[in-house]
């Protein structure tokens, strides 16, 4: 069997951090991976008067989305999506969830049929009363086996090599081991579990809880309230998975980085939490704060709150998820934030 050729699809804050690990690891595991280059697809834009791909390829730094972090020289920025995935056998999807559908439209019929994929995207696809994890969306659309990676992973910290853990929910154990080889380092520990849905759903739903935690901080309520929001949020996450998905594993919530640990890190210092806190303190709309605070990075939590609201409404189950509902109403329906904890 030939060596695996990796391509990274997405080059934001997390995409760049994970490209760094992949670039380092393909050079370490040359028995498994083609180490000559790791293409990273970049949605082309100008930054400080120059094309972002040129900046990345000349300075080996994504100065817009991951400034101050050196990328390995084998990570090569490519603006053309088809060219980036040409010949790739191991595809890593890592982009804000709102851009996946358009990306798949372009990739449909263009990827190697023997390739496999992993998604690091945190979100869900909702179409009325139907809900899908992105691993299933990618798998169905491209016809390739797709695993999922999610965990307590604030990208800037992973990029600085401080100790972190993550979870890969794999389709086959062999796939799991491949992804572990691609991402694991002494300071980035990759655990494996046979639970693609549980890992994916934890990553999506915790972003709603993180928005609630930001509201609590904006209101100045303190640590007891934040802990209560985390506890209630985790229970709603678990309840949601068990109600609407088959065979989700308890360990994905309680033992793996994908569950409690990601709720905690996201509620302490994630972007969703930070911008939600500013929403309360500055009384400005989310889109304005996102632009001002994140320099092009994208929020996921308020969109997932809306997606989940649409789905629960169709299923007539909104009342079973009061915290998810409060986050939706405050973010999108002008419910006063002081009502966050009412009725919880
Ligand atoms: N940043 C983190 O700490 C982190 C950690 C774990 C998981 N994640 C998840 O990973 C996913 C990707 O997050 P990220 O931090 O890499 O992205 P990001 O928030 O930094 O978003 C910026 C990216 O979006 C791209 N973009 C902007 N407009 C676009 C368009 N019209 N079409 C296509 N792409 C466009 C930009 O080119 C850039 O690559 C998200 O689902 C996120 O929840 C993020
Ligand atoms: O910064 P956030 O809120 O998008 O969260 C980042 C990661 O998902 C934390 O694990």
UniProtKB/TrEMBL annotation:
GO terms for cellular component: cytosol; nucleus. It is an enzyme of class 1 (oxidoreductase). It comes from the Eukaryota. InterPro entries: 6-PGluconate_DH-like_C_sf (IPR008927), 6PGD_dom2 (IPR013328), G3P_DH_NAD-dep (IPR006168), G3P_DH_NAD-dep_C (IPR006109), G3P_DH_NAD-dep_euk (IPR017751), G3P_DH_NAD-dep_N (IPR011128), NAD(P)-bd_dom_sf (IPR036291). Residues 5-173 form the Glycerol-3-phosphate dehydrogenase NAD-dependent N-terminal domain. Its EC number is 1.1.1.8. GO terms for molecular function: glycerol-3-phosphate dehydrogenase (NAD+) activity; NAD binding; protein homodimerization activity. Residues 195-341 form the Glycerol-3-phosphate dehydrogenase NAD-dependent C-terminal domain. It holds the Pfam family NAD_Gly3P_dh_C. Keywords: NAD, Oxidoreductase. SUPFAM superfamilies: 6-phosphogluconate dehydrogenase C-terminal domain-like, NAD(P)-binding Rossmann-fold domains. It catalyses: sn-glycerol 3-phosphate + NAD(+) = dihydroxyacetone phosphate + NADH + H(+). Belongs to the NAD-dependent glycerol-3-phosphate dehydrogenase family. This is Glycerol-3-phosphate dehydrogenase [NAD(+)]. It comes from Kwoniella shandongensis.
